[in-house]
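JOB MANIFEST
job_type = single_chain_structure
chain_count = 1
residues = 193
[input]
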Amino acid sequence: MAKARRIEGWAIVSEDGMLAGANHVMPASLKFEADQRFFEDGLDGLDGVDVVVHGRHSHEGQPNSDRRKRLVVTRRTASLAPDPAHPNSLLWNPAGVAFDEALAALDLDAPAVGVVGAPGVFGLFLGLYDAFHLTRAPGVWLPGGVPVFPDVPARTPEEILSESGLAASDPEILDAERGLAVVHWTPPALLAR
């Protein structure tokens, strides 16, 4: 049985906690070059990830995306199935097979996991994250959009992350001119280091 070595999430959201508009498409107003670099470095850098987990309508769209192993969360399969669109991917229904079993099916031993999208997918890992990197797009509002977590906007993403046992770092400035910063949410013991 494979166990994840590390589970990290990445999301950029609007002021109202949305990661896409009402049309389920990430608008240009949420796309910042500095955030894209940060995201790509997280996936492919020195401590990068071995597998990406996302929903059917999400993807990371990075240069190495097609080579990366992935689990695509969907209810369109009973448990696990090959992804006809991507040879390195498996379609995964969490109701049909446990996460550890899905990782084992990818033939990965103690992988670093990157969670990159869809409210239900981000929510699935609450309580399991070793880190969640939350970037806010200053001045961007997407009323009626797709929230980062299922309980947004009734609760803020920060409240949800805090209630799941994570603590916020000081903001890391990604683009001072645009006022863009990321907050790293980790277990409190990691912040003390």
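[summary]
The chain has a mean pLDDT of 91.
The CA atoms of residues 22 and 145 lie 4 Å apart.
exit_status = 0
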